[in-house]
């Protein structure tokens, strides 16, 4: 089984916390640009904010907009967009040999609505209504099971912690079940990931506090290969030196997911967390920030470097392969999910921490919800890989005597 599958599968299991929290402290650029929810990757230069105006490398941005640069003067840009020649009146700026232009002027001229997401410092270019039919109407089948006992109902939903708009709308069965829920259960409440308290926790546990750096804890070969990847992505080779291997690994994975258009902000669990906030129903956590971070931090030194090295060695294929995993989720393919889940068994330490121990804890809590006799409905959303297999939540609940029905 290829190692990249296990790297990607981690994104359906437990990196929702890190996918939300880590990029905030280790992103490749302070300001990002997304075109219809797909991140633009800048390798020569990076977006900057100057006196309230976001400037972006012109040629890379035009390429991402499928526009051709026809010519420039000191105060104008001529480009070809959808076969039409447009002129942008703007003063250009040269920085380290790269030509920059204001993103708002470029986006407006190319026919996009330009928005600013303050929380993530992201410029959003959104296509204006032009009669195009969104593929999102197809949504996804996903994974959902139902368990009933003593007047209580628990729906078990398998999440992908990173997704895009093509996952939505979800099947009506998801929305109907959630509409009746009294509680939303999740691994951790990702809406709190950017809170100062959680950021401090990630930093204190995920960075070295003893004066050492990453270079002191991994092999020279691993460190060198990491530096090569960082340089290719516009970063200094030592940009992540302050962080432990498990943070670096997840940061690299998150960056690749972003380049594939998959974001934690669109993840299935965060989607329902936001809906729970709108409905004002309680969000209960099956785990905690402390427990998830502690799990990663307690991995042996050997395992931390092994998983980091796997991500480094497979870095170039992760974004394309992520789309394959997204299709697996959208088609609700149990067989493929089980095959991927079984890749964890290659490493006993990793499998026990990531799946076995956590699945037992989750199943015990769900058992408690089913037995409380209050006639309540729980809508539980956790990483899809927690459900199937000999140690999966479905099997654990069946072993407790429950009938678990795939929906």
Number of E strands: 17
- Discrete helix count: 16
- Write out the strand line-up for the largest beta sheet, numbering strands in chain order: 15-14-16-13-12-17
Q: Strand-residue fraction?
A: 15-25%
Pfam families: Cu_amine_oxidN1, TraB_PrgY_gumN
Keywords: Signal
InterPro entries: Cu_amine_oxidase-like_N, Mao_N_sf, TraB/PrgY/GumN_fam, YbaP-like
Protein name: Copper amine oxidase-like N-terminal domain-containing protein
Explain what this protein looks like in three dimensions.
The chain starts with a helix and ends with a strand. It is 42% helix and 21% strand. Mean pLDDT is 83; it is low at 19-29 and 130-137. The protein folds into two domains: 3-27 and 137-406, no CATH class; 32-120, no CATH class. A hairpin with a 2-residue loop joins β1 (32-35) and β2 (38-39). It contains 16 helices and 17 strands. The longest helix is centred in the last third of the chain and has 24 residues, at 348-371.
Write the layout of secondary structure elements.
Layout: H1 3-13, H2 16-21, H3 23-26, E1 32-35, E2 38-39, E3 48-50, E4 53-57, H4 58-64, E5 67-72, E6 76-81, E7 84-89, E8 93-95, E9 98-102, H5 103-109, E10 112-117, E11 122-127, E12 143-149, E13 152-159, H6 172-179, E14 183-186, H7 196-206, H8 220-232, H9 245-259, H10 268-279, E15 283-285, H11 289-297, H12 301-313, H13 315-331, H14 334-341, H15 348-371, E16 377-383, H16 393-399, E17 404-406
């Amino acid at each position: 089984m290829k190692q990249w599958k296990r790297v990607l599968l981690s994104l359906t299991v437990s990196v929702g916390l890190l996918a939300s929290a880590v990029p905030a402290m280790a992103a490749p650029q302070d300001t990002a640009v997304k075109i219809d929810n797909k991140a633009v990757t800048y390798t020569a230069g990076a977006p900057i904010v100057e006196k309230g105006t976001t400037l972006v490398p012109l040629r890379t941005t035009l390429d991402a907009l499928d526009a051709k640069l026809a010519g420039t003067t000191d105060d104008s840009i001529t480009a070809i967009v959808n076969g039409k020649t447009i002129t942008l009146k703007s003063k250009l700026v040269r920085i380290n040999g790269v030509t920059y232009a204001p993103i708002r002027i470029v986006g407006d001229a190319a026919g996009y609505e330009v928005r600013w997401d303050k929380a993530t410092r992201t410029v959003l270019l959104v296509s204006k209504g032009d009669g195009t039919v969104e593929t999102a109407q197809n949504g996804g089948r996903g994974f959902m099971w139902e368990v009933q006992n003593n007047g209580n109902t628990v729906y078990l939903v398998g999440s992908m912690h990173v997704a895009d708009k093509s996952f939505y709308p979800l099947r009506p069965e998801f929305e109907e079940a959630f509409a009746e829920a009294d509680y939303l259960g999740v691994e951790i409440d990702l809406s709190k990931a950017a809170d100062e308290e959680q950021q401090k926790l990630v930093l204190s546990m995920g960075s070295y506090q003893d004066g050492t750096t990453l270079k002191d804890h991994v092999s020279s070969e691993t460190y060198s290969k990491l530096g090569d990847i960082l340089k290719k992505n516009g970063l200094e080779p030592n940009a992540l030196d302050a962080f432990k291997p498990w943070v670096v690994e997840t940061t690299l994975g998150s960056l690749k997911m972003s380049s594939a258009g998959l974001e934690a902000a669109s993840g299935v669990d965060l989607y329902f967390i936001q809906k729970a906030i709108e409905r004002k129903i309680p969000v209960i956590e099956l785990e905690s920030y402390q427990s998830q971070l502690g799990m990663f931090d307690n991995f042996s030194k050997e395992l931390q470097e092994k998983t980091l090295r796997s991500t480094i060695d497979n870095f170039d294929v992760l974004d394309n392969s992520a789309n394959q995993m997204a299709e697996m989720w959208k088609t609700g393919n149990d067989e493929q999910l089980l095959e991927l889940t079984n890749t964890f068994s290659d490493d006993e330490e990793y499998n026990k921490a990531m799946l076995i121990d956590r699945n037992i804890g989750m199943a015990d809590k769900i058992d408690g919800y089913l037995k409380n006799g209050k006639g309540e409905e729980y809508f539980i959303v956790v990483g899809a890989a927690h459900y199937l297999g000999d140690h999966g939540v479905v099997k654990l609940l069946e072993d407790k005597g429950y009938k678990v029905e795939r929906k």
